[in-house]
Design a protein that fits this description.
single chain; 135 residues; four-stranded antiparallel beta sheet; alpha+beta; 4 helices; two-stranded antiparallel sheet; globular
Length: 135
C-alpha cells in the first residue's frame, strides 16, 4: 500500500494496530536540533510501508531523511565520522555520540540505543517495546 497522504496513513495505522510515538511538533524539534550538528550524522530510515531495508546503507543528508516524516516508522542515527589519514594509513573514527545525545535531550524526543547509535521511533507495532533512554 502506497502511503502518500494522511488519510491513508491513518487508515493503515488503525488497520495494523500501530501506535504513534512522534507527532509533527516532535519531528520539527528534532529536525531543528539535528540541523545544528548534521555534519556529524548518518541516517537509516524505515517507512511504514517498507518491508526490506538495506542495513548497510547510511544517508548523510538530513534533508533526504526528513521528507514525509509522517511515514517514518523508525530512524536510526549515528554520529561516527571517518577521517582519512592517508592512502596507506587506516582511517580514524571520530565518535560524536555525546553531541547527538545532547541534541536529543534538548529536543525532548524519546529514543532507544541501537547499534552504534540511536533509534527514533515514529511508530510502534504490536509486540515492539523499546528500552527508552530518556523517558
Amino acid at each position: 500500500m502506497e502511503l502518500n497522504n494522511k488519510s491513508k496513513i491513518l487508515r493503515y495505522l488503525e488497520d495494523e494496530n500501530i501506535s504513534s510515538v512522534m507527532n509533527d511538533t516532535k519531528w520539527e524539534r528534532l529536525f531543528q536540533e539535528l540541523k545544528k550538528i548534521e555534519w556529524t550524522l548518518d541516517f537509516q530510515r524505515k517507512d511504514l510501508d517498507e518491508t526490506n531495508i538495506d542495513t548497510e546503507y547510511w544517508d548523510g543528508d538530513l534533508y533526504h531523511v526528513f521528507g514525509s516524516h509522517q511515514k517514518i516508522e523508525w530512524l536510526n542515527i549515528r554520529a561516527l565520522l571517518s577521517k582519512q589519514k592517508g592512502v596507506l594509513v587506516e582511517s580514524e573514527i571520530e565518535d560524536n555520540t555525546a553531541i547527538l545525545l545532547e541534541a536529543l535531550e534538548t529536543s525532548g524526543v524519546p529514543y532507544s540505543k541501537h547499534g552504534s547509535g540511536v533509534r527514533i521511533w515514529g511508530y510502534l507495532r504490536q509486540g515492539v517495546s523499546p528500552e527508552w533512554e530518556n523517558v
